[in-house]
Amino acid sequence: MKKARQKTPIGENLLTLRHRMKMTQSEFIDMFFKDEEGTPLLSVAKLSNLETKGNRDEEMLAEKVAGKLSLDPALFSLSPDDFAKNIDVFMEKANPQLPVSIEPKAVSRGSYIDSVVEALSDYLVGNISSGKLQPGSRLPSDRAFAEMLGLSRSSVREALKVLSAMGIIHILPGSGMYLAKDASGIFTLPFSWTFLLSTDSNQNVYQLRMILERETVRIATQKRGTPAFEPIREVADREKRLLEERDFSSFLGCDQEFHMNIAACAGNEILYNLLFTCRKILSFLNAYGMSTIEQMTQVQQEHEELCRTMEAGQSQKAEELIVEHLRRSEERYRGQKGENQAQTKI
Q1: 174-223 residue pLDDT tens
Q2: d(CA 124, CA 119)
């Protein structure tokens, strides 16, 4: 007797994706399941069957969808609950040429918006320095900014979005715009924008970040066994648990927390603020980060090894590990194929 084929989660996950993209079955087929001549590879009826029961071609079809979206095909083999829980994380990394990206639009370098952002930055820094603005203060409307600075309202709106993405201001629909409560980042904003506009932005910031993180790791290692060190171990343990639970959204947030906890343990406020600025710039410049389940696993393992080495008081080895970790992170953020990394990105 012929053995019944065991159902996999691929079909259900494709259905979840289609709903997330707000597409009809016909639209989904048009986007993902046509050959080079434009002939559909399956009918609406077969897609419906795939979504509810699965079929023998589901792995191949999932690979087509993954390739079009620049996703990791392994994601479609996650349990439906895990896939649904993390779908927004996956969509943030999707191919921005398709109508699923929720990333803020990057401002092109050298555009008119650049000068508008600089003008707004100068306004904020000048008014904070003079005491006219305090952290958390409500800011003028985009119309008022346009009138004050002699700029078009549309360009001011775009520039404000950039400042919001960098964490300098908070835009609350129905309430207004507010200066960030942490004023320390405001004064590094001109420094940040200079990096964003420079030709070698990525390389310059990566080099600076490596210098800063080597120093914070060295100092933090000396403080092992103290209460200041405990948050480093706590987040390293939490990363492992979140990865096991397939809670990728929460895991991604732990990456910055781990590095900033090391900087906080070092206890040097200037180092901390400079490192925070570097990370903000890198997140703004780069479209890709940890992209696959394999990459997330690598990051967790690298963090755990670094944490254990610091706990053991091996300062020199810890410095070597952070340099190697950052080198690999650069490859991940640039979307390059590293020696031990997969080519596929999500």
Answers
A1: 888 998 876 555 555 555 555 554 545 567 778 888 999 999 999 999 99
A2: 9
SS3 at position 40? strand
- Give pTM, 2 decimals: 0.60
Q: Which two tokens stand for residue 270?
A: 């200037």
CA-based R_g, the chain, Å: 23
Task: Kindly report the average pLDDT of the chain as a whole number.
Answer: 79
DSSP 143: H
CATH of 198-334 given 1.20.120.530, 3.30.750.24, 1.10.645.10, 3.40.1550.10 = 1.20.120.530
User: What SS3 state is found at 3?
Assistant: coil
DSSP 80: H
Question: How far, in Å, CA of 342 to CA of 294, rounded?
Answer: 8
Q: Say which residue, 12 or 150, is predicted with more confidence.
A: 12
Please give the Cα distance from 66 to 344 (Å, whole number).
Answer: 9
Calculate ∠ Cα 107-108-114, nearest 5°: 70
Using CB atoms within 10 A of its CB, is residue 258 exposed (0-12), middle (13-18) or buried (19+)?
buried
Amino acid at 229: F
Q: Is-contact 254 343, C-beta < 8 A? A: no
In order of 103, 138, 163, 165, the CA distances from 176 in angstroms are 22, 7, 14, 16
User: CA 203, CA 163: separation in Å to the nearest integer?
Assistant: 22
For helices 293-311 and 315-334, what crossing angle results, to 10°? Answer: 160
Average pLDDT of the segment spanning 223-229: 96
Residues 6+ apart with CB under 8 A from 3: none
* 112-184 CATH fold: Arc Repressor Mutant, subunit A (1.10.10)
Q: DSSP state, 171?
A: E
Per-residue pLDDT, 274 = 83
Q: How far is CA 175 from CA 141, 155, 171, 172, 180, in A?
A: 10, 21, 8, 5, 15
